[in-house]
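Sequence only, no structure available. Ideas?
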Amino acid sequence: MASNDILPTIKERNPVTQEAHRRQAFWQIYFPLILFGVLVIVAIVLAVLMSSQGVSKWADISLIYMISLAMVSFLIITVFLVISAIYTGKLLKATPYFFFTIQRYAFLIELRVKKAANVSVEPFLRINSFIAGARAIRRK
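Reply:
I predicted one. Tokens follow.
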């Protein structure tokens, strides 16, 4: 067996689908990134060239956007915490019954295991008690 038989063969890609993939990658990934980068650079240039009042206005607008985004995320977290607290309360109300049922079955299992253990040990206890009685009688 030659070493070429073991290695997997490399398949050539379809040139039509490869070109379509390149075209889609450019328009769906690279073009929006380039456009966003250009817009950021234009915004930075405008912010540098504006007067102090214009800069203050844009700073206020940016601050409002940042605070509103923080408020939305805090609102989502607060709603999640409230829902968690409500369902935790419901769970705490429901668990005593279920835990009592589980405890009851565990107690029944304990009783049956003890009974089975006593039944399985009883022959050995009888033999050992008979031997101990015979030794006591022999000593006297």
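The radius of gyration is 40 Å.
Hope that gets you unstuck.
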